[in-house]
């Protein structure tokens, strides 16, 4: 098995590409080890000292390291943990993966559907290339709340991505959108 690695815009995060599917659908975000109880893959990666976050995409794994930890010291152990997982035959996640988007009913449901469609077709594929994901969290009085995951969470350029990229895109196609803000979960 050959696992490729790619840098991301977030210097604390690396993208690992195992050359086979990680998840069948959706994504899974584990911002700390305690959240990884449902994922044998994430638990293996968190066992590497210095790992602070694991994000699973359809065909990649994004790993975030602690400040002060050098990639040269943890990357070989992470590669070993990923290889060990795929050789074990265990699933990446026990149970279903999440589509990511929060549900939203009410008078703005049509607008929210448009927002989710634009996120799914224009935004999420682009941020997946960088090892992350951005999902819909809410819409209230013209403000779209988005949750940034994987390499996007804590990325130095995430504010620019939100304001200049996603906000401009949504405002262009959906006049009811006035602003985009990040949320933590």
N-to-C series of helices and strands:
EEEHEEHHEEHE
Instruction: Write out the CATH superfamily name of the largest domain.
Output: Scaffold protein Nfu/NifU, N-terminal domain
Highest CATH level, the class of the largest domain: Alpha Beta
The CATH topology annotation of the largest domain reads as Ribosomal Protein S8, Chain: A, domain 1
**Number of beta-strand segments:** 8
Amino-to-carboxy terminus distance: 35 Å
Instruction: Name the shape in a single word.
Output: elongated
- Name the CATH architecture of the largest domain: 2-Layer Sandwich
Count of spatially separate domains: 2
Note poorly predicted spans: none
Sheet with the most strands? 5 strands, antiparallel
Q: Overall pLDDT, averaged?
A: 87
Strand arrangement within the widest β-sheet reads 1-2-5-4-3
Radius of gyration: 17 Å
Q: What is the helix tally?
A: 4
How would you describe what is shown here?
- With 185 residues, this protein is α+β, with helices and mostly antiparallel strands.
- 34% of the residues lie in helices and 24% in strands.
- It folds into 2 domains: 4-88, Ribosomal Protein S8, Chain: A, domain 1, CATH 3.30.1370.70; 109-183, 2-Layer Sandwich (GMP Synthetase, Chain A, domain 3), CATH 3.30.300.
- It has 4 helices and 8 strands; from the N terminus they run βββαββααββαβ.
- The strands form 2 sheets. A 5-stranded antiparallel β-sheet has the order 1-2-5-4-3.
- A hairpin with a 5-residue loop joins strand 1 and strand 2.
- It starts with a strand and ends with a strand.
């Amino acid at each position: 098995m050959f696992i490729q690695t790619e840098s991301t815009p977030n210097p604390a995060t690396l993208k690992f590409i195992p050359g086979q599917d990680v998840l069948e659908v959706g994504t899974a975000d584990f911002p700390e080890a305690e959240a990884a109880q449902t994922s044998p893959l994430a638990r293996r990666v968190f066992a590497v000292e210095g790992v602070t976050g694991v994000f699973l995409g359809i065909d990649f794994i994004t790993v975030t390291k602690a400040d002060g930890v050098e990639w040269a010291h943890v990357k070989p152990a992470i590669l070993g943990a990923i290889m060990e997982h795929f050789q074990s035959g265990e699933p990446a996640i026990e149970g279903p993966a999440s589509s990511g988007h929060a549900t939203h009913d009410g008078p703005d449901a049509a607008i929210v559907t448009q927002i989710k469609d634009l996120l799914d077709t224009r935004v999420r594929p682009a941020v997946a290339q960088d090892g992350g994901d951005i999902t819909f969290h809410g819409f209230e009085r013209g403000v779209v709340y988005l949750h940034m995951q994987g390499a996007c969470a804590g990325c130095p350029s995430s504010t620019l991505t939100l304001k200049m990229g996603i906000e401009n895109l949504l405002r262009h196609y959906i006049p009811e959108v006035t602003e985009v803000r990040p949320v933590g979960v």
